[in-house]
Design goal:
Length: about 140
């Protein structure tokens, strides 16, 4: 069972009791790290090994080989590129790899990429060929 959410007390307690995985969706790496810590603390308080629960994160992704490609992809999903860079995974393949790495450093062992333009198969190819091999 996957449990996620932003509640500072009840959500971690529910995750400690029931979850196989805790997901920090659409949070910054720092906020995800804090949420993971609260779940680990709740596990300890409940007598559960904190290592028995997986930690994951999720972000909207907008990846491109050029600024023009990024801007086009952001516009196609109705988002501003600057906002996506701040609140999602937007940038070149190497920037996306680095951002995923920040979540790994925060404790995430699984990462979910939310693709909003399902018709953009070129972006999927870019992610598969230039991001996936590095994460």
């Amino acid at each position: 069972m996957i449990i996620g959410g932003a509640g500072p007390r009840r959500t971690p307690a529910l995750a400690a009791k029931y979850a196989d995985e805790f997901n920090a969706a659409f949070k910054s790496a720092a906020d995800a790290e804090a949420a993971f810590g609260r779940v680990r603390d709740a596990c300890t308080e409940a007598g559960r090994d904190p290592g028995s629960i997986a930690f994951s994160a999720a972000q909207v992704v907008c990846c491109g080989s050029s600024e023009a490609e990024l801007a086009r992809r952001a516009a196609s999903i109705g988002r501003e590129l600057s906002e996506l860079r701040e609140n999602g995974l937007a940038g070149s393949p190497s920037e996306v790899v680095d951002k995923i790495g920040a979540f790994a450093a925060a404790g995430a062992t699984t990462f979910y990429l939310q693709i909003l333009d399902l018709a953009d198969l070129d972006q999927l190819e870019l992610l598969a060929s230039q991001v996936l091999p590095h994460v």
